[in-house]
Amino acid sequence: MVDPDAFTTFEAAGWEEKAAAYEGAFAPLTSEMIEPLLDAASVGAGTRVLDVATGPGHVAGHASRRGARAVGVDIAQAMVELARELHPGLDFRQADAQALPFEDACFDAVVGNFAILHLGHPERAVAEFVRTIVPGGALALTVWDLPVRMRIVGVLVEAVHEVGATPPEDLPAGPDFFRFSADDEFDALLRDGGLQQRRVETIAFTHHMRTADGIWDGLTGATVRMSALVMAQPEGTRQRIREAFDRRLEDYRTADGFELPVSVKLASGRKPALHGIASTRTGSKRRPAMATTTTTMPTLSDDQLVELLPLIEESDSVELKLTVPELHHRSTARVLGLDPLEGQIRQVVFFDTPKLALEKKGVVVRARRIQGKADDSVVKLRPVVPHELPESLRSSPDFRVEVDALPGGFVCSGTLKRALPPDAVTKVLTGKRPVRKLFSKEQRAFFAEHAPEGIELDDLAVLGPIYLIKGRVTPKELGRRLVAELWFYPDGSRVLELSTRCATHEAFQVAAEGRAFLTAKGVDLSGEQQTKTRKALGYFARNLADEAG
User: How large is the C-alpha radius of gyration of the chain?
Assistant: First the structure.
């Protein structure tokens, strides 16, 4: 039987001892979710945000760099002291997330990165989070997905199960560690807490770790519940667990270590606004749209709006995009504070027939290498009508339906994505592996369903690669992240695209605020809108034709 209070006491004592070890072993992994977590809670300049179970304080640190006013709390004093050391000048306090020492409605947002799964009373904690949020404010939480998809944890969980190890008698029974890995359970937690506009999404990526010993030592030395379970076993049992662990880990070995699939559940929602009025702080101190304009942005017709509204309602997200005329690239980068030396280099390669048969059918196939991160591959179909897509596809954690909206037009697309080992794309480009190896079974089936009959993945020509620099900036005046991608085409031309992703319910407000912000900065909104992909496909297809002729 679960004893929530005994479990909370056990966790608190454990983290007092594990603070430094956790920072060394797991901070690089859990930090991958900080930006999506803050985005889900619309944390920006001026946002009053509470980071619960702050640990080493990295979420609060990132929020502060966005211009937010962040407070971090943790039940373990050792964690609080570590957070203060790593992030001097920020406000960190010792407090129980299940009994917060704050007044009602004093934060615009509350976030918890892998917090809720360590709490004995998760429902009580959510009630406390909601109590401290202003009407219209946001809550965002993350948990690990099931072991079959979260393999860093999964390899050890399965090894323990294989050996038949049982918890020691003095280990307090806690809530199911993977309870909120189920979307319906996570949604119910927020629903029962009174939140609206709820969303549960799955974010998958891969994480590189150098040695089996490092992974083992992290799981058994830098955690509380798992460490207590494994290390309390007799020496012989521990050895059998380690052998089973090492055997499973071999499935993920690469030339320089291990590339382990990671999957995370991110849940978010909003506290109902008073009298039905939406909060004006949905991501920071947002300013009303300005009426004055210096350039004319193409607008949508009434018929386009009628078509667009249901697409947005049925989609997972909206990405607002703007192509800046090449003459204004330098001035735009300057006024937005974009530094190319802080950008991330990416290499993109497309796959199609020399006559672009896929592109004509609305199918885009591409792979990507990303500086400092794992490779990935995508099969995309556009346009799509969301409600016409099969439920099995919509429910896939790797599939997203998104509306891309740009001045004067829009398109709704369905994207199936796969994370890849760091050298996967290079092996294909150098002829060491066939194209199909970049794509999962699910992606291959999606491709086969929508590609022209008779065309296989291994039949496709390589179109590319092309290079780009991706930068991010969060202007205080805008209060949300703006992404800039500068694509360099082999003929010397460039495309600069500005974009921001938002929830479907806030698309029109974000669009108005973004237009006002860019206009005030003097960014030209009237240029011809180019799609990066179409321009790249056209260029490389012409090259193939010239070579063949």
Answer: 24
Beta strand pairing call for 363-370 and 253-254: unpaired
In angstroms, the CA 243 to CA 102 distance is 48
Query: Which residues, including other chains, have CB under 8 Å from residue 392's CB and lie 6 or more apart?
Result: none
Q: How is 350-395 classified by DSSP, letter by letter?
A: EEE-TT-HHHHTTEEEEEEEETTS-EEEEEEE-S--GGGS-HHHHT
Encode pLDDT of 158-195 as tens digits: 898 888 888 877 777 778 888 999 999 999 999 999 99
Rounded Cα–Cα distance for residues 76 and 96 (Å):
9
CATH of the domain at 317: 2.40.320.10
The distance of Cα 211 from the centroid of its chain, to the nearest Å, equals 26
Looking at the structure of the chain, the number of domains it has is: 2
Residue type, 436: R
pLDDT tens track for 222-256:
777 777 788 888 889 989 999 999 999 898 999 98
Last residue of a domain, one of 208, 240, 275: 275
433 shares its domain with 308 = yes
- HSE-up (13 A, CA, CB side) for residue 219: 23
Whether 130 contacts 211, CB under 8 Å: no
